[in-house]
Design brief:
Number of helices of chain A: 9
CATH superfamily of the largest domain in chain A: Tetracycline Repressor, domain 2
Helix content of chain A: over 70%
Strand content of chain A: under 5%
Largest interface: A-B, 36 and 36 residues
Number of domains of chain A: 2
CATH topology of the largest domain in chain A: Tetracycline Repressor, domain 2
Structural class of chain A: mainly alpha
Oligomer: homodimer
Distance between the termini of chain A: 65 Å
CATH class of the largest domain in chain A: Mainly Alpha
Shape of chain A: elongated
CATH architecture of the largest domain in chain A: Orthogonal Bundle
Largest sheet of chain A: none
Radius of gyration of chain A: 20 Å
DNA sequence: GTCTATAGAAAGATAGAC
DNA sequence: GTCTATCTTTCTATAGAC
């Protein structure tokens, strides 16, 4: 039988992060108080400071954790034989992963401005590392002549913006399944980069 | 000679909106206090309430004004002869207009969640009206057989997300002029929708 | 039209009891 | 590991002088 109160450090930390992510994504970092987060977890506000030195660090941990997981998950995707196949894998991976973590994605794009300079730079570096993954695919395809792009960096940013936009409208049980969305977006990307 | 103090209602209102837009875009609605806005204009906090009933109304006026101007500006663009030409006009218009009003665009995408239900619905309706402008172009091209799209609504959202993404990276004096950016993005859109 | 002053609520963070 | 209590600051919004 579980204790009604006492020590729960192993479970409380993750629950704080989960509730903070949910609340920050829904209302915005600045609009959410430490008291609201504590209440969602079932704690008093002071107890949060056992798990984070301050509010900004809590946000940073969420963003850093998300970017680390994003890069690790992409690293797990097996390499394909040709740039077009690699690009298809990236498009499908990006849509799938981002839909699974909509709240974290939203935070990572919207709440960067609430970080101090050092924390901001750390997240930016990870974001650029992810963009570079796509850009190397585009560069390889460009070199082989299967893609025709005026600028690979701009194409990278354009494609990522387009794919991430799925998160703003996709709803479970809507007109399209995730698989259908992947297919439709892949069709558009494939044509947009084609030689 | 201008008075040092006294009545300035005709100039103070616009200045409040300009400074509020700048501060909200930079730090986020919830993170900016009425005192900060007043200080940026050169007023005391209480004086702001001569111009807005509360903080949320100030935000709503900014978003509503932006959407109205966006729709009005698009209405001024002369109609082109064919769907591809219309689409090119839309792409160039969207990039140009959004780069000219980067702060307002940022607000309109990020701070909707700080509006109450009625204000939220009003802005959403205007956003959908703008999306419908693009979708009718895509539908017309689809009907004429010059575009090939699995779904015009999804293509609408994908294209707008891609174009609006320019605002996240474009900097004056960077590698590309505005005209060059318009051209590169139009090339990608043109190919993505082509039959 | 703007200011000073302030009411009243809520914020982030800390101290010490248990 | 968590709670209660509190310090200190800051917030939105209002009242009344000028």
């Amino acid at each position: 039988m579980a204790r009604k109160s006492g020590s729960h450090s192993e479970i409380t930390g993750p629950r704080i992060r989960t509730e903070a992510r949910r609340l920050f994504a829904r209302h915005g970092f600045a609009a959410v108080s430490m008291r609201q987060i504590a209440a969602a977890v079932g704690l008093q506000a002071g107890a949060l400071y056992l798990y984070t030195p301050d509010k900004e660090s809590l946000l940073f941990d969420l963003l850093k954790g998300h970017m680390d997981e994003l890069l690790a998950a992409w690293a797990e995707v097996p390499a394909a034989a040709s740039p077009p196949e690699q690009l298809e894998a990236f498009v499908r991976f990006h849509i799938r992963f981002n839909l699974e973590r909509a709240e974290a994605v939203f935070l990572s794009y919207m709440e960067l401005r609430n970080l101090g300079p050092d924390n901001f730079a750390a997240i930016e570096a990870l974001r650029r590392a992810y963009e570079n993954e796509l850009e190397s695919i585009l560069r390889a395809g460009q070199a082989e002549g299967c893609f025709a792009l005026p600028d690979t960096k701009l194409a990278t940013l354009a494609i990522i913006a387009m794919l991430t936009g799925v998160n703003t409208w996709f709803r479970e049980g809507g007109r399209f399944s995730r698989a259908a969305v992947e297919q439709i977006y892949w069709d558009m990307v494939r044509k947009a980069v084609a030689a």
